[in-house]
Design brief:
single chain, about 140 residues, mainly alpha, 9 helices, about 55% helix, about 0% strand, elongated
């Protein structure tokens, strides 16, 4: 049974492979071993080797808010720039990113279900709701 001959990648070789690519996605597809080697050496080494590449954005709060300001609605923002949207949701920046958009009613968006049936209004009296729940439990 023949064994596979393995060869190790040096950091210099991996950096030369990185220079041949323009995006991290292309680098990961064409040279996955080099990418893995650089990642194992540390993300600082990987960032240095990929510094010339485009398409990778390190999201900050300021960048995320600036990108969000270019969209009129929340759904446009989500569809238009998923990276910024994910950064916003993970870091809980909705108030900052949606501040210029205003409430959905002002934008002409109708809230509610698309069905013709309307929901009953929800009773917000906490004591009343608590009594209803306790009555159902005791039945």
């Amino acid at each position: 049974m023949a064994t596979k001959k393995r060869w190790s990648i040096t950091t210099e070789q991996a950096c030369q492979d990185a220079l041949k690519c323009t995006t991290r996605t292309e680098f990961s597809v064409k040279f996955s071993g080099s990418l893995r080697h650089l990642r194992d050496k540390g993300f600082e080494v990987l960032d240095d080797a990929c510094s010339h590449m485009t398409g990778y954005t390190q999201w900050t709060t300021e960048k995320c808010v600036d990108v969000a300001r270019t969209y009129k609605t929340r759904s446009e923002f989500r569809k238009g720039n998923l990276g910024a949207y994910c950064h916003m949701t993970v870091n809980k920046l909705q108030d900052l990113c949606y501040a210029h958009m205003g409430p959905p009613e002002k934008l002409g968006v109708k809230l509610g279900s698309k069905n013709k049936k309307r929901r009953k209004p929800v009773d917000t009296d906490v004591d009343k709701l608590f009594d209803m729940i306790m009555a159902r439990i005791n039945e």
